[in-house]
Design goal:
- By secondary structure, this protein is α/β, with parallel strands linked by helices.
- Helix content is 37%, strand content 25%.
- The protein has five helices and seven strands.
- The chain has a seven-stranded mixed β-sheet, with helices on both faces.
- The longest helix has 21 residues.
Length: 172
């Protein structure tokens, strides 16, 4: 069965999923589709590309690509009420990419919402990797804490947004 917030998201029947490079997002997409959810996926790439009405590639470091994504998804009538963001569990040694995955992608997406004049109610569910120490001696990924800013500010700026995180110990 699906974890609590993911199951709740599946019940919404329509999700926008930022798919990671470790397979967590892909496996969740498969399970959510099996449960009857309509999914639009977003993958990291070099430039904005709409592969079809349900699959996109964006340059994660380009704020303009997030605006294009929001506008395209909305124009196709596919704007989801739930955003499942899995990029936080992507593996990279580059500080700048970790910052994008853990913080800037949320800010750029919020800017895309403003530019697209999207004011719908929706839920952000973001996966993180070793953000919190649960047991003594567990390794913490300090860059994952960067999500705290968007997690607190976006619902303040967008009162109709709920923002949750799910911390995993993602292994390669």
């Amino acid at each position: 069965s699906l974890p609590g917030k993911v199951k709740e998201a599946a019940d919404e029947e329509s999700l926008l999923v930022f798919v990671d490079d470790q397979g967590y997002g892909s496996r969740l997409v498969e399970r959510l589709q099996d449960a009857g959810s309509k999914i639009v996926t977003v993958q990291a790439g070099d430039t904005f590309e709409q592969l079809d009405t349900e699959r996109y590639v964006i340059d994660t470091s380009s704020p303009e690509d997030y605006v294009k994504l929001v506008n395209s998804v909305a124009a196709n009538g596919n704007f989801q009420k739930t955003i499942l963001h899995c990029w936080g569990v992507s593996k990279t040694d580059e500080y700048s990419q970790q910052q994008i995955n853990s913080q800037l992608s949320f800010i750029y997406f919020a800017q895309g919402l403003i530019a697209g004049r999207i004011q719908s109610e929706f839920v952000f569910l973001a996966l993180t990797d070793c953000r919190e120490q649960v047991m003594p001696g567990e390794k913490i990924n300090c860059l994952q804490s960067l999500i705290t800013g968007p997690q607190n500010v976006i619902p303040y700026e967008f009162p109709t947004v709920r923002f949750y995180t799910l911390d995993l110990e993602a292994t390669q």
